[in-house]
Write a structure and sequence with these properties.
With 864 residues, the protein is an alpha/beta fold. The chain is built from 28 helices and 28 strands. The chain folds into 4 domains: 76 residues, no CATH class; 314 residues, Rossmann fold, CATH 3.40.50.2000; 281 residues, Rossmann fold; 109 residues, Immunoglobulin-like, CATH 2.60.40.
Length: 864
């Protein structure tokens, strides 16, 4: 049959004028973190709300018109709608936000409303997990991006997100009878999502294009509004593109390496072009993981084209306005493309940057001279950003070790990758019950927007009230699990007798442990099954039952992860484990909410240090649950011995089998000797006072720190604002400062090989010095063609360890008094002796320029 062309039109629900606020609320994802708004849409049709993945747009599109008419006569519903609409308007029109008060004091009052544009941030991510009804996320990275953008809205940042609009999103999971994961992909109906098509002045779809081999690929721009912040999504599934190119935005993380290059070109290059087409060119770009690193190249290309610059000058300006966050603590998890593949897609792009092939590919290589090294997206991102960070303190250490070769002459601890620990958007993850409790006892400023004092009031919450609240949520979790388990069994065609057993699964009063995350082998989802007899005894202890709820997806090509899921599913059928172990299929944000709000304990046992951060445990602690975790990622810095439980003491092992044995035993010991006794130790009133004390400490010490209000404020203070200021400095006056910096850097590289430390003398250096003493050091430094204003000469000193290194160094900037002999300059400095032990020092020379972000950025060091 011949393919027919159809003219399209969109049918929208008919809402009377009195109900128009529903439409406004449905098309802004602010509703997803406001319990009153969620309750409002559920009230329209509870079953339909559940059936549509809690999508207000779908509810309004499918609700019976008679029900709409009935709502017009429901005074209670109308009052609730008006109340929510008032909250929404107040949120959007707040006269002062944290950003205004921190960065624009007095500007709005003076009527200078254009000032926020000087800080305009574009946040690029491959996925955004904002709500289950907008399925353009797979897991932790996407949920973090979603929470980031929500807090950017709460704090009032001039912010926008950039992503791809996946037609099929990430896969939906179901298990076969033997527990093997299967994937199915469902088409997203864009016209039943809270999407708004961006259009041109004459009403046509707004599109951009990116050059691919032998063709142009066009992408349409959609917008999802997230509170005050727009999220722009690029869609290649449109008529001008070939069938092959329409698949670029079909699936998240789908396809082969070549598909990944295509997706990342659309995200990075296309994303920048989209922002320009929208009239919102960014001042600062934040690349969340290396997937979007091409955006830096496109900003450089555009600046070169528009202002007739050379690559070096444009690079200085663009790098000044770029922040990069890395999430992956293993080299294999960072995208890298073979040179031949880069040639295929970028051969026409090289000359636009006025670079030859080797210079271009060198931007993505740790060793630019190694022509066989693949082009790494993380390396490119590090080279094109002036602020780079890992996502926990421990991950910062791991990242500095991973990427030290880019700054080969620097000690590992000085590699310029800092850390900003992840957080969660608290209002999105706490239950309505917990929100009411917080509002009653903590006041109105507990919501994580950089506020900490309110959390000190947690101890005011009566134990009985906190425990009743938590027990209600555990009961809801058990009811949800039973319902989902019944659906799973029916979907597999299980016999009625087996389906009926679902109603007997789990105990609403038992100690409940949750384990839910991506099923990668390093996360060790089956570690707790290492000794089945011991586990069975723990779960079935008379009067002290324990149960474990599992959920999570393995990547479609990760057979190791799939085997872990199958093993759990098979073990859950054992007669002695059946009532105590459940695996919930198709893990998503909805399942996650039930789990983090209802479990007593969150189990996390990755191989340290492979968990960059982890955020699921943060969601649990905000709800009063306790963490039982290996000291990895965020838990390594969060655990204080009284706010949860630690598996091990932060050891790292080379023998994985031995590690599994030791840490599984430690987990069993903690359960038997500490967790279970504490949970079931009840007073005359039936309350577990010791457990409640730890719940309150967990909330008080962790919730005010591990939230995205704190995290985004830290990004704004450490990353966005300094980057915006540097960008403004380098781009004003026709990029005068950027040109000067590029010229200086070019001269620096040519002259650096002649810089050397000729001689170092320590005045009266005895065999031993005493605490409180001082040692004067004089160095003669040959600067070659450079001058003292081009360098910083430092005394690098500290205690020496057994390997002859200085793990915790200090530096003293040496002074130059103008005395020199030709090209040799004399520098002096003093080391203060503050602690005993064997110490060492060296003199080193680093580049220095007023417009560098820091002296380590060029990666040039000369040591004595």
């Amino acid at each position: 049959m011949a393919t027919r062309s159809f003219r399209t039109f969109t049918v929208l629900p008919t809402l009377p004028a009195r109900l128009q606020p529903l439409h406004k609320l449905a098309y802004n994802l602010w509703y997803s973190w406001n319990h009153d708004a969620i309750s409002l849409f559920r009230r329209i049709d509870p079953d339909l709300f559940t059936e549509t993945d809690h999508s207000p747009v779908k509810v309004l599109g499918r609700v019976d018109q008679k029900r709409i008419e009935a709502l017009l006569q429901d005074d209670g519903f109308l009052r609730q709608m008006d109340h929510v609409a008032t909250q929404f308007d107040a949120y959007l029109n707040s006269p002062k936000t944290w950003f205004d008060e921190t960065f624009l004091p007095g500007q709005k009052a003076a009527g200078r409303t254009d000032q926020p544009d000087a800080y305009r941030v574009a946040y690029f991510s491959m996925e955004f997990g904002i709500h289950e009804s907008v399925p353009v996320y797979s897991g932790g990275l996407g949920v973090l991006s979603g929470d980031h953008i929500k807090s950017a809205s709460d704090l009032g940042l001039p912010f926008s997100g950039v992503c791809l609009m996946y037609r099929e999103g990430y896969f939906r999971q179901y298990l076969t009878g033997d527990g093997w994961q299967q994937e199915r992909y469902l088409e997203n109906d864009f016209f039943n999502l809270p999407l708004v098509a961006e259009t041109t002045a004459d009403g046509q779809p707004l599109t951009i294009s990116v050059t691919f081999p032998g063709r142009e690929v066009t992408a349409r721009i959609w917008r999802v509004q997230v509170g005050r912040v727009p999220l722009y999504l690029l869609d290649t599934n449109i008529a001008p593109n070939s069938a092959e190119d329409r698949l670029i935005t079909a699936r998240l993380y789908g396809g082969d390496t070549e598909m990944r290059v295509r997706q990342e070109m659309i995200l990075g290059i296309g994303g920048i072009r989209a922002l320009h087409a929208l009239g919102k060119p960014p001042v600062v770009c934040h690349m969340n993981e290396g997937h979007s690193a091409f955006c830096g190249l496109e900003r450089i290309r555009l600046m070169m084209e528009q202002q007739h610059l050379d690559f070096a000058t444009a690079r200085e300006a663009v790098t000044a306005g770029t922040v990069f966050t890395t999430h992956t603590p293993v080299p294999a998890g960072n995208d890298a493309f073979e040179p031949a593949l880069m040639d295929r897609y970028f051969a026409t792009y090289y000359p636009q940057l006025k670079l030859d092939r080797n210079a271009f590919l060198g931007l993505g290589r740790q060793h630019p001279g190694n022509h066989n090294e693949p082009f790494g997206m993380t390396v490119l991102a590090l080279r094109l950003s002036n602020v780079a960070d890992g996502v926990s303190k421990l991950h910062g250490v791991v990242s500095r070790n991973m990427w030290q070769t880019i700054w080969a002459d620097l000690p590992e601890n000085e590699v310029p990758i800092t850390s900003i620990t992840n957080g969660i958007h608290i209002q999105s993850w706490i239950s309505a019950d917990m929100q009411a409790l917080y509002q009653r006892y903590l006041g109105l400023q507990w919501d994580g927007n950089n506020e900490t004092k309110a959390w000190e009031r947690v101890d005011r919450i009566p134990d009985a009230e906190l425990w009743r609240t938590h027990e209600r949520r555990r009961e809801r979790l058990v009811a949800f699990c039973r319902s989902r388990l019944r659906m799973q069994l029916q979907g597999r065609g299980a016999p009625p007798a087996e389906v009926a057993l679902a109603d007997d699964a789990l105990d609403p009063e038992a100690l409940t442990i949750g384990f839910a995350r991506r099923f990668a082998t390093y996360k060790r989802g089956t570690l707790i099954f290492s000794n089945l007899d011991r586990l069975a005894a723990i779960l079935n202890a008379k009067g002290r039952p324990v149960q474990i709820i599992f959920s999570g997806k393995a990547h479609p090509r990760d057979h190791g992860g799939k085997e872990l899921i199958a093993q759990i599913q098979q073990l859950s059928r054992r007669p002695d484990l059946r009532r105590h172990i459940v695996f919930l299929e198709d893990y998503d944000m909805n399942v996650a909410r039930y789990l983090v709000q209802g479990v007593d304990v969150w189990l996390n046992n990755p191989r340290r240090p492979l968990e960059a951060s982890g955020t699921s445990g943060m969601k649990v602690c905000a709800n009063g649950g306790l963490n039982l975790s290996v000291l990895d990622g965020w838990w390594d810095e969060a655990y204080d011995r009284e706010n949860g439980f630690a598996i091990g003491k932060g050891e790292e092992y080379s023998d994985h089998a031995y590690q599994d044995e030791i840490e599984s035993r430690s987990t069993y010991d903690l359960l038997e000797q500490e967790l279970i006794p504490l949970f079931y130790q009840r007073g005359p009133d039936g309350l577990p006072r010791g457990w409640l004390k730890m719940m309150k400490r967990t909330i008080r010490t962790l919730a005010p720190v591990f939230n995205t209000g704190r995290m985004v404020a830290e990004y704004a203070t450490v990353g966005y604002a300094p980057s915006a200021i540097r960008y403004a400095t380098l781009t004003r006056d026709n990029l005068k400062e950027a040109r000067a910096l590029a010229k200086w850097r070019h001269a620096l590289h040519h002259a650096w090989s002649h810089v050397k430390v000729d001689d170092v003398k320590a005045q009266t250096l005895p065999d031993a010095l005493h605490v409180g003493g001082r040692m004067e050091v004089t160095a003669r430094v040959n600067l070659g063609e450079l001058t003292p204003k081009d360098v910083e000469v430092q005394l690098y000193h500290g205690r020496i360890d057994n390997a002859g290194r200085i793990p915790h160094s200090a530096t003293v900037v040496m002074t130059q008094d103008g005395h020199h002999e030709g090209k040799v300059w004399v520098y002096r400095g003093v080391i203060s002796c503050t602690e005993t032990g064997q110490h060492g020092f060296a003199v080193r020379v680093l580049p220095s320029h007023v417009n560098l972000p820091h002296v380590f950025e060029p990666g040039l060091v000369v040591w004595s």
